[in-house]
Amino acid sequence: MSSDFETKIHAAASGDRAAYDDLFANNLPALVAFLRAKVGGELAGRESVRDLAQSVCREVLRDLGGLEFRGEEQFRAYLFLQASRKVVDRYRYHKQEMRDPARVEQLPTDSQEAEVLGSYGSLTPSRVAGAKEELTRVEQALQLLPEAQRDAVLLSRIAGLGYQEIARQKGITEAAVRGLVARGLARLAGLLGQSDAGAPPPA
Question: Which pTM was predicted?
Answer without folding.
Answer: 0.69
